[in-house]
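Title: Comparing notes on inverse folding

I've been comparing how different people in this forum approach sequence design from structure. To keep things fair, I'm posting one structure and asking everyone to reply with a full sequence. Here's the target:
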């Protein structure tokens, strides 16, 4: 394994354009918008790449030919050396040969950990990642039929950036509040003066904006998520940005909400939960 110098990240960016899956989180790292790590199989003319986002997402792509790199990947995915401190969600370019490699590695890891509780102590879970296609027509139709809740929606400012709690919130995807204010966007729905739901740009390019959404547990089922995501989508349309949505199939709340908002499932691929 070789960690690529950040000065070389820009050379990797064109490789993402060839992929048929959502790679915006990896693009954010390679473009220098957020910190992250890139591991390669060799210093000169690398052929295999592993991009790790600080939120705990990673992308594997390139050619699966280097045995030393595959050995590093086996150790890393199982966290055999104990160097990885958080759970990580890995997706591999489905048009490469890495899916077959990962299937073998997962089987070996989980056979070794068969006597352990699933999801812990070395067991890798295989989920499904869904990439959606946005339908403007379906969104506008859904918006016209939606019964809007009586709640206030405001832009997510620096204070809301710092105080919004949950597993998917802006501060996990941006360097700080100033960075979010200058390059990101978001909207927060307030109920009784409390932050009930927040939709925001988890990643943004000149052409696309990927939407992140967090709704407090006590505020779910009230239409708040639809309402605040609608504000985010309207922002995208006003700024000529394509709204982007991706989630685990197993996250039924996000999966169903996406379709209510006019997103259509387009691509599915394995999504591996790597243990600590």
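Reply #1:
Here's my take.
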């Amino acid at each position: 394994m070789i960690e690529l110098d950040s000065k070389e990240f820009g050379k990797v960016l064109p490789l993402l354009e060839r992929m048929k899956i959502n790679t915006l989180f990896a693009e954010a790292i390679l473009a220098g918008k957020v910190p992250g790590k890139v591991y390669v199989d060799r210093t000169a003319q690398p052929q295999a790449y592993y991009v790790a986002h600080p939120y705990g997402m990673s992308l594997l792509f390139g050619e699966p030919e280097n045995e030393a790199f595959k050995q590093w990947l086996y150790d890393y995915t199982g966290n055999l050396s104990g160097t990885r401190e958080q759970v990580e969600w890995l997706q591999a370019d489905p048009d490469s040969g890495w899916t077959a490699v990962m299937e073998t590695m997962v089987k070996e890891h989980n056979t070794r950990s068969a006597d352990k509780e699933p999801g812990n102590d070395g067991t890798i879970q295989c989920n499904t990642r869904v990439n959606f296609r946005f339908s403007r027509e379906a969104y506008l139709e859904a918006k016209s039929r939606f019964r809007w809740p009586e709640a206030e929606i405001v832009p997510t400012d620096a204070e809301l950036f710092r105080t919004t709690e949950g597993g998917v919130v802006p501060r996990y995807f941006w360097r700080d509040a100033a960075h979010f204010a200058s390059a990101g966007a978001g909207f927060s729905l307030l109920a009784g003066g409390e932050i009930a739901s927040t939709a925001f740009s988890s990643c943004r390019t000149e052409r696309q904006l990927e939407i992140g959404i967090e709704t407090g547990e006590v505020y779910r089922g009230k239409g708040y998520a639809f309402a605040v995501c609608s504000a985010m989508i309207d922002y995208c349309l006003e700024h000529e940005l394509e709204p982007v949505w991706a989630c685990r199939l197993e996250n039924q709340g996000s999966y169903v909400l996406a379709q209510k908002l006019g997103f259509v499932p387009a691509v599915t691929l394995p999504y591996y939960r790597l243990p600590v």
